[in-house]
Write a structure and sequence with these properties.
binds NADPH dihydro-nicotinamide-adenine-dinucleotide phosphate; globular; 8 helices; single chain; Rossmann fold; alpha/beta
Length: 252
């Protein structure tokens, strides 16, 4: 039920953090993983790791905000592998500023990287998934898909938008046997949050106090959900947003 042998998965930002965690899970379950990121050094290191796990992985350099480059990357992956089955829209950034200090250029950068890219990548893989007889798309949201935060107006808007995009794509493509779901990470120890810990005083302690599991999440916490949402085990699950947060979003 969880076997992904013969399946091909593109993971945007699959060269580090949560994306690499998901890529490891997919690789262990047998999928061929395409690591789609900007930093070629990080991507090469990720590919080496995934190959050691038994995946015939490879990297394609991509800036997900470049529409033409996304189309080229997706078509190149499909041509090299002969099929596509899974897309993880994980690439994301944050610019931490209150709304009155955020420039329009910064707003656009965050929205285009986090939200528009998920639309563009999903649209590009759609014909390939259809050709494979169905497929899986996983969008990476956030606790800020649910909650507000004073320091993240564009990030929160992008992550809230991803949940609604997930529902729209799920409804539109269910008839093609394509399931589209979102994962909402809690506070996870990655490069992204290292910066947040430096910028937001007391964050580390607040996260520990607020998270019922009493720890930060790790990239490894995303292996299981990646396999579940990419496999036959989730064939009747679509349009949902599943928190992976150690209980953070269930506690007042
Ligand atoms: P990282 O900074 O480790 O990962 C972000 C990834 O996105 C990198 O691999 C980066 O690749 C890629 N990326 C960013 N911009 C682009 C771009 N324009 N084109 C291609 N790739 C890009 O952080 P996380 O692992 O924490 O973040 C992964 C996702 O999880 C993000 O969507 C983030 O919003 C989300 N998330 C994280 C949480 C956390 O606590 N860590 C909580 C909630 C959500 P490269 O280095 O090659 O540019």
């Amino acid at each position: 039920m969880f076997d992904l042998k013969g399946r091909v998965a593109i993971v945007t930002g699959g060269n580090g953090g949560i994306g690499l965690g998901m890529a490891r899970g997919l690789a262990r379950a047998g999928a061929r993983v395409v690591v789609a990121g900007r930093n070629e050094q990080k991507s090469s290191a990720a590919v080496r790791e995934l190959k050691a796990l038994g995946s015939d992985a490879f990297a394609l350099a991509i800036d997900v905000t470049d529409e033409a480059a996304v189309q080229e990357m997706v078509d190149a992956a499909a041509q090299r592998c002969g099929r596509l089955d899974i897309l993880v829209n994980n690439a994301g950034i944050n610019i931490r500023k209150p709304a009155h200090e955020l420039s329009l250029a910064e707003w656009k950068e965050v929205i285009e990287t986090n939200l528009t890219s998920a639309f563009v990548c999903s649209r590009a893989v759609y014909p390939h998934l259809k050709h494979s007889g169905g497929g899986k798309i996983i969008n990476i949201g956030s606790m800020l898909s649910i909650f507000g935060a004073s320091f993240a107006p564009a990030y929160g808007a992008s992550k809230g938008g991803l949940v609604q995009l997930t529902k729209s794509l799920a409804v539109a493509w269910a008839g093609d046997n394509i399931q589209v779901n979102a994962v909402l990470p809690g506070w996870i120890d990655t490069d992204l949050t290292k910066k947040a810990r430096e910028q937001l005083q007391g964050l580390h302690e607040r996260v520990l106090a607020r998270t019922p599991a009493a720890r930060w999440g790790a990239a490894a916490d995303f292996e299981g959900i990646a396999v579940f949402l990419s496999s036959a085990a989730s064939d009747f699950i679509t349009g949902t947003a599943i928190p992976v947060d150690g209980g953070y979003s269930t506690q007042v």
